[in-house]
Amino acid sequence: MDPIALYYPYIHVRDDTWLKYASLYWPKMARLRPYRYRTFDSPVARALHNEANWLINIWPPRWAAEQVGLPFLDLINAHSQELRDRFGLDRIGLWKIVADRHLGLTSFGKAMLDRRLGYIHADKLTPNMIEAAVDARLAIIDEGWGGTWVGMHPDLASAYTCALIERIAIENHLHPVTDQPLPHSAVSGWTLDRLVQVLIDRPSSDTDATGSPRDLLDAFVLLAFETVIPANLEQVPIEKIIQVRSRFGAELDTFREYVTQQTQRLSELQDIRDLAVFQEYLRTEVQHSVTSQLTQLRERLRSVGLESTRALVNVKSVALPPLAAMTAETIGLSPEITGPAALAACIVTAPAQWRRQRRTTIRESPVGYLFQIDQALNPDKLIGRLRRTWPA
Where are the domains of the chain? Predict the structure, then answer.
């Protein structure tokens, strides 16, 4: 069973291009939406929610807030002074916060009362947790859009949100995903000891890239998609993305199995200390495995003439590969053909077994889904490749 993705730290996805990437891979994506919170989704998110039923809402579960709140209550009770020294609201003028890093964790399109704070909807917290944080002068309560919000230092808000998402994901077999660069992740093992390490023992400004969290599966998928996704993905209509998802479900299932196998094989990369080195190792592996698999698939298809008709799309004059030329000759066409009528003739007369073999070859390939994305979203790149391969 492929896990459903769980988006964090916001309610609204901030990056529509990232959302398109995510929708091409995950079976569905959930987000924590408080019951009274009215969403203002982008057209891309609305289409994935209303038309594709891919983006789904789940209410913040009370049990998760109760479980996650316990170690935070212990942290406040045992280290209240240390927390106030770094995150106390009376020291807000001394905070060193990366601009727009994760301010207003639950806001969208509405300015929060103090943009220096990170805000968490009260539905994601227990009353005891809120009371303890306010009493310790670590948080304030604001009434705003969609209900009650609790404002605190962005690092505290980030740590709590990540811990909550991690707990919900574990108990519901979900996979946390984010489009935001965060100092922490939802796969960090948020115990009391971990909270002390992140919030007490380590300076709050120690968020350099060398210690940034990384998700091997997400990184592998993103790099694999980059081999075929067009550079202008933000301009690709979301309806086209939805069509690709629904049309190539079998290929996507095979690709997910391949990704799982590859990330298991590369699991030792997660022990690499520096993020830049981790990225280079992973990029090299993707180039070696994914790109070579795509090359092999194209060569297998080309060897039986299965890409011959695609060579004619929008091409004024192109020399057909041998099997396509045989087909053209059988129906009385010259191997050097032009025009839509000739293209239609070749398509109509292409042997049925070729089409079946083509479908089977693609579906059995671990990267057949990437190949189909390439064909669906990169027609111009395809024609350029064919012209280079089969010069007129």
Answer: 62-209, 214-392
